[in-house]
Amino acid sequence: MIADDDEKWLAAAIAAVKQNAFYMQRAIDSNNLKDALKFSAQMLSELRTSKLSPHKYYELYMRVFNELGTLEIFFKEETGRGCSIAELYELVQHAGNILPRLYLLCTIGSVYIKSKDVTTTDILKDLVEMCRAVQHPLRGLFLRSYLAQVTRDKLPCIGSELEGDGDAHMDALEFVLQNFTEMNKLWVRMQHQGPSREKEKREKERNELRDLVGKNLHVLSQLEGVDLGIYRDTVLPRILEQVVNCKDELAQCYLMDCIIQVFPDDFHLQTLDVLLGACPQLQPSVDIKTVLSGLMERLSNYAASSVEALPNFLQVEAFSKFNYAIGKVVEAQVDLPAAGSVTLYLFLLKFTLHVYSDRLDYVDQVLGSCVTQLSATGKLCDDKAAKQIVAFLSAPLEKYNNVVTILKLTNYPQVMEYLDHETNKAMAIIIVQSVLKNNTHITTADEVDALFELAKGLIKDFDGKIDNEIDEEDFQEEQNLVARLVHKLYNDDPEEMSKIIFTVRKHILTGGPKRLPLTIPPLVFSALKLIRRLRGGDENPFGDDASATPKKILQLLSEASTVEALSDVSAPDVALRLYLQCAQAANDCELETVTYEFFTKAYLLYEEEISDSKAQVTALHLIIGTLQRMRVFNVENRDTLTHKATGYSARLLRKPDQCRAIYECAHLFWADEGENLKDGERVVLCLKRAQRIADAVQKMANASRGTSSTGSVALYVELLNKYLYFLEKGNSEVTGDTIQSLAELVRSETKKVESGAESFINSTLRYIEFQRQQDGMSEKYEKIKMEWFE
Amino acid sequence: MNYLLGAFKPACNISITFTDGKNRKQVPIKKDNGQIVMNPLFQSQETIAGKINIEPYQGKKVEHNGVKVELLGQIEMYHDRGNFYDFTSLVREIDVPGEIYERKTYPFEFSSVEMPYETFNGVNVRLRYVLKVTVTRGYAGSIVEYQDFVVRNYVPPPPINNSIKMEVGIEDCLHIEFEYNKSKYHLKDVILGKIYFLLVRIKIKNMDLEIRRRESTGAGANTHVETETLAKFELMDGAPVRGESIPVRVFLTPYDLTPTHHNINNKFSVKYYLNLVLVDEEDRRYFKQQEITLYRLKEETLS
User: Fold this and answer.
1) Mean pLDDT of A155-165
2) CB contact under 8 A, B237 and A48
3) Cβ atoms A423, A390 nearer than 8 A
4) Are B135 and B62 in contact (CB under 8 A)?
């Protein structure tokens, strides 16, 4: 409804404007000054309406504006015809209504200035003063906007023909400033017009008009003669005075932004303290962070664009000014939410990183200021603030791409203190990811210590609480990151590397039962890697005192708290594997007692912790595999361990498992390299024992034929392969008879039933056939006759 | 025009011309019937001289008991129309009784005539100067011809001309201070001034400055006052806030003003007022009226 009326009124007003413009044009054509004035005043009277919304009023204004152009030309011609311009200037002021009168006055005023009959200044002063008479915000705003428009090309600005002396500059400046001030006042006042329920709509409309006000600032920036001195002493203080005093959020926000955008960068740089000084004085609701961020962004770009500008930044101490100003703003705006203040610091930080990328101390200062601020608010709980903090803390990471640099920032961890757990963890992830992505080399224990301190959101639980709701997959993913991080830590110097490992261990052990299974392995492997390195470098350059001896490191690993921690938290299988790995490393270092100890621990774990039969099978195979490769043991120790392993094998639950474990044990008596470890007799014994078990399996299978399809054929074939292996290895105890009997077994069994092992058998046979024809093997294979398998 | 009235057609045509009639400034005067005619302009102490032509119509002769010319200054009250009060009356006999056969011209002269009052056309009163030529005839009735002329008196700028400055207001509602640069303005002057808003609690729509003329006629209990608004000049559009000052600049030229007249011959007075009117959004008017003195400044001394 209202919109419709709006349209109707506008249409009526436009029609009236058109009509009067037509008559005005006719009067102009016939050089009738009186009528021209009369109709132009009537046309302008349409602008006196209060019915139109700002948007529509603007449309109407533009119509009238176009017509006034004609009138201006007419005035110019009229003065050429001998009519005194001073008379004209008076004549237009006879109009009874103020608005048409002032529009006409501005029009003739602009002609007056051009005529150079009077000093520009007098006219400008008069015009800007007379325009005070329109106090209606909308109409006044447009009137003054018209004034600005028509005088614009008459001001002594850059490139204009009307360049005056120094005074003229100042007067023009004064004129624009005053017009700006008045326009802003009107603009601000607009919000109080009309009923308060339409306030929101009005503010929107008002916002649409802001460029009318802002244009003045643009003109100011174009004025000739506005150098740094004048800007600093006159222009800026005057503008800011108006901005601060108007106490209007919308205006302050917009105008601050305008100032920042229209004036040159170096002006800003040189007047930073003034500009920033205004910020705390703005209304609390003003979005200062947008304003300041705009400024900082601009200056950052400035710094980036020209190298010469950088010394200026240092000279004016831009950083400390910003830092101070933001502190003040935060102080002044009591209601500023934490998110807001953090955002402010975020922008400052970004600015600092841009401009002073080499000044870590500045970066640290920003963090410090933020800490001070946060200490007042306590831990952050709201999402927005948390997000901002993450961005805040991520900024230096992104800039330097190097965590080592971040570690030098003493306030960095302090900021993290204020995060809630969730955010802290998120931040930790970001940090770790940065390390991984950028392949950052973290080479000292101290750095490692600091890094883990930062990343403790990932490393341990807070307050001992375990968050049960956490997604298992996510958790794994996170801990994978930690694991990857551990692998990244590297120093060529073994001494330092060992320190690193010690440090990592310290942190990782705090991780709690859920993390340890995922984080201990990388630690152990990292340590083992070091051990290998030490061994590879044969001589230990540090002598026996050095901490970085394999022995010491292994001791560290064997200490109750490292790997054992895993068994405590029900990850014994992992612990077992790690012990075996350690044992292997110790073996390589020829530390018999240590190796033995690891094995003992592994055995103990096997006995006490591993109860699942499948796990037992796997563990046992691992034990056997590892033990087979041990070289450091004396006969006694070896026998003990071997015996134990064999014993375990026989006690497995399922017969096939027993069988397989035992034939694997055969390998324990036969090592390729060690001469003293070729006990063919015991090998065959093991295999025989395995075969007996296979027989038993076979019997059971026969008994329950039909229900169970798992025969022992496969076991026989496997055994056959074992025999072949040892045969090839030159074990003289492996006889043709044994193989023959096995072959027969296989044959008879395959005839009885579909065993599912045919392909295995066939490939074994093909292998035998092949080996018989090989040079080195043919004699060993003579014992085997192919007809056994027919 | 007399020939229109055929029956009463006078026997002769009388015309009056002034000595310097061609060069003398003519000013427009509105007559009773609304017609505007141009009349010659004089001022006090001037010599009013000229010629009177009496031209009998074709074939007629005018017999008379003498011809005289009078210079009259008259005040006419409209409630008493047709009844003139002559405050000045000078007579010159220009011919002795006799007969006029053909066109005859008589020179006349009133030297240094004292004409203290200005010609004035008001709502209820008129002050005029007129030359009256009478051809006195016994039986047929006298033939009379009038010639109006205008008198304007110029004065030097007043030695003391204070500004008008005043603070007015309605308690807790509206307080303003206004200032007009002078209290005495000449007719082509400009009123300059300022209105300061000290307190504004009402929603003002606009502010006008009116020029009002108050014409009072009669005396004592019969005094009749008539007020006219001669000009309504918008000073401000919209509602100001406290601290605003609004400029005033009113050119008096376009308005039909006269000097202030004080007690002209105990018959009437004409006074001028500036009326500052503030109108609020509910069309209530708040106003303050201040008397100003208008005077006629000698043209040459202008600017």
Assistant:
1) 54
2) yes
3) yes
4) yes
Mean predicted confidence (pLDDT) in A743-762: 74
The confidence score (pLDDT) of residue B53 equals: 92
Q: Confirm or reject contact between A136 and chain B (CB < 8 A).
A: yes
Amino acid A570: pLDDT: 64
Residues B65 and B136 both lie in one domain: yes
Q: Which amino acid is at A374?
A: L
Q: Do A110 and A129 fall into the same domain?
A: no
Domain shared by A634 and A571, yes or no? yes
Q: Which of residues 172-201 of A touch B (CB under 8 A)?
A: 185, 189
- Give the residue numbers spanning the domain of B270: 164-295
Q: Are B53 and B104 in contact (CB under 8 A)?
A: yes
CB of A615 within 8 Å of a chain B CB? The answer is no
Domain count, chain A: 4
Cα A610 to Cα A615: distance, rounded to the nearest angstrom: 7
In this model, does residue B235 exceed pLDDT 90? yes
- Domain boundary among the residues B151, B174, B190 is at B151
Q: Minimum mean pLDDT among A148-162, A273-287, A663-677, B113-127: which range?
A: A148-162
A84 and B CB contact within 8 Å = no
pLDDT of residue A542: 46
Are residues A145 and A211 part of one domain?
Answer: yes
B136 and B42 part of one domain: yes
* Band (A465; pLDDT cuts 50, 70, 90): low
Contact A99 B237 (CB under 8 A): yes
Q: Which of A93, A99, A132 sits opposite B246 (nearest CB)?
A: A132
pLDDT in tens, A579-638: 888 888 877 777 788 888 888 888 888 888 888 888 888 888 888 888 888 877 787 888
Any chain B CB within 8 A of the CB of A48?
yes
Kind and range of the H or E element at A706?
none
C-alpha span between B43 and B5 (Å, rounded): 35
Average pLDDT over residues A674-701: 78
Q: Which residues of chain B make contact with A96, given a CB cutoff of 8 A?
A: 231-234
**What confidence score (pLDDT) does residue A178 get?**
92
pLDDT 10s digits, A386-406: 788 888 888 888 888 777 787
Residue A198, domain extent: 119-260
Same domain for A649 and A710?
A: no
Does A93 contact chain B (CB < 8 Å)? yes
Half-sphere exposure of A375 (CA within 13 A, CB side): 8
Tell me if chain B has a CB within 8 Å of the CB of A73.
Answer: no
Please say which residue of B151, B178, B198 terminates a domain.
B151
Q: B240 and B218 in one domain?
A: yes
Location of structure tokens 């883990």: A452
Residues A144 and A223 reside in one and the same domain? yes
Beta-carbon separation of B244 and A139 below 8 A: no
| Nearest to A458, CA basis, from A498, A411, A419 | A419
For residues A231 and A147, state if they share a domain.
Answer: yes
**Domains in chain B, number:** 2
Residue with tokens 């006690």: A651
Contact call for B237 and A96, based on CB within 8 A = no
- A216 dihedral zone (left: phi>0; alpha: psi -120 to 50; beta): alpha
User: ipTM, 2 decimals?
Assistant: 0.88
Residue B233 has its nearest CB partner, among A96, A136, A189, at A96
Range from A724-733, B168-177, B245-254 carrying the lowest mean pLDDT: A724-733
CA distances from A331 to A99, A335, A337, A365, B94 (A): 46, 9, 12, 17, 103
Average pLDDT value for residue range A88-115: 91
Q: Do β-strands B98-100 and B62-64 pair in parallel, antiparallel, or remain unpaired?
A: antiparallel
Question: Can you give the CATH number for the domain in which B229 is found?
Answer: 2.60.40.640
Q: Which residues of A touch B279 (CB under 8 A)?
A: none
pLDDT of residue B2: 46
**What sign does the dihedral A733-A738-A743-A746 (CA atoms) show?**
negative
Residues of B in CB contact (< 8 Å) with A are 206, 231-241, 244-247, 249, 251, 253-254
Which residues in chain B have Cβ-Cβ distances shorter than 8 Å to A129? 247
User: Does the beta-carbon distance from B238 to A139 stay under 8 Å?
Assistant: yes
Instruction: Please check the confidence at residue A306 and state whether its pLDDT lies above 50.
Output: yes
